[in-house]
Amino acid sequence: MKWGEGMANTLVETRYGKLQGSKNGSVYCWKGVPYAKAPVGELRFQPPQPPEPWTGVRDATKFGSVAMQPADALFGGGLGRVAESGSEDCLFLNIWSSGADGKKRPVMVWIHGGAFLFGSGSMPWYDGTQFAKHGDVVVVTINYRLNVFGFLHLVDLFGEDYAASGNCGILDQIAALRWVQENIEAFGGDPKQVTIFGESAGAASVGTLLAMPEAKGLFQKAILQSGSGALLLNSAAKASVMAEKILHQAGIRPGDRDRLLTIPAEQLLQAALSLGSQVSYGPVVDGKALPHHPIEALKEGAARDIPILIGVTKDEYNLFAITDPTWTTLSEQQLLQRIYREVGPVPQQVVDYYLHAGDESEPTWQKLLRIMTYRVFTNGMLRTADYQVEQGAKVWMYRFDYETPVLGGKLKACHTLELPFVFANLHQPGIANFTGDSPNRERISKQMHHAWISFARSGDPNHDSLPEKWQAYDFGKRAVMIFDASSHVAENPFGKERAVWETSIAK
Questions:
Q1: 442 given a catalytic annotation
Q2: Which residue among 200, 205, 454, 487 is the active-site one?
Q3: What domains does the chain contain, in order, with CATH numbers?
Q4: Residue 502 annotated in active site
Q5: Which of 415, 449, 450, 463 is catalytic?
Q6: For the chain: N or C, fewer Cβ within 10 A?
Q7: Prediction pTM value
Q8: Catalytic annotation, pick one of 316, 403, 418, 497
Q9: 200 is catalytic
Q10: What string of DSSP letters covers 166-211?
């Protein structure tokens, strides 16, 4: 496409048609761009198909529909999440760039979290304006099918036509990455310099993509925030049992394809949600789309050529204790019983460690929740990092230690707290209700935001605003960048905790 005097424009031509975007200051944006056909009708529970080309100019100034999902218990209310009505027709992406000018900028593709249950690429927290403005990178945020629409394993109940249904959400992400390969040059991006990054279920998605043969070559770097390749995935057998429960609840008999494809989306979603914790959503190790568990594939070198940046927040699980206050009211024995139900038995030596390792005046729930943080988040991060180092890949590790003062300080450095810091979106509506308004926030945000930009550019997160050199993670020093009021590099900060677990389990 030709540009007058080489100037960028909001009108861009993709392989599928022309898009009219908008401009905000120095940053251009295109929203609600379809990267696949609407997965409705015959395409429900099928792998994504390339989008239909269009004639004329498509308006790309408004976000597309989000995926079908329940109300968001974590981020509803005053935390800046806009209530959005979900639709099965949800396979859209959004692009921020300094210009569609032929310049080949690094590309950062964001995969949102939300337990594979809710979330969207249009949440204000994920606005890519600051990345494009400060880093001259192109940011892409995506929607993908969630919950029952993205991860319902139907092959045993409906035959080989539905062999990929348990991984539709991940296949959507791959389709979005293919779209980026085909089209991002038109937006000033370099398809040979793509970094995928995500948080929570988004980071678990990144861990899965690192291991999937079909995703090979679609990205060159990866960032995993509070998630890893070691997530607890559903086996094909377990996923089939859950699918059977959901279909029974929805009144769909195995093999009744007409009913499967015509039941209203809201009705199917409500049937699944009514089962509560009996079902869980996420990628399925089906032997086809996902041949092996991601952590095993990483151990064997599936991503040895991909540098990764990986980390956790210090008090991940505190967020879940606030959304489910019973965690904070149970007795010590009740707490332990609940933890065992969630993550399996925990050696007494480990329990004793958490009860006595820190501040003795802390409430018992706070001490024991660290078991959940380690089992659900930290352990997987360490395993993912170790396997990558063993394979010779570059690894950079961080921990986010800034504690929010809101809710009486109960949240501490909880799950998702780092997100507005990474995106430099502390100014977005409602953010201060979550992060507090400490003057340290801006400095920490600048350090993280530019580290992510530097990593996307070179595979190395070091930059001038860091207080000291961030050393790569290795088996010698196990260096970790601690982001806090006084950010610093710590050597092996997880070492003592990890040793307690490993020696106890070895016994």
A1: no
A2: 200
A3: 4-306 (3.40.50.1820), 327-397+424-431+443-507 (no CATH)
A4: no
A5: 415
A6: C
A7: 0.95
A8: 316
A9: yes
A10: GGHHHHHHHHHHHHHHHHGGGGTEEEEEEEEEEETHHHHHHHHHHH
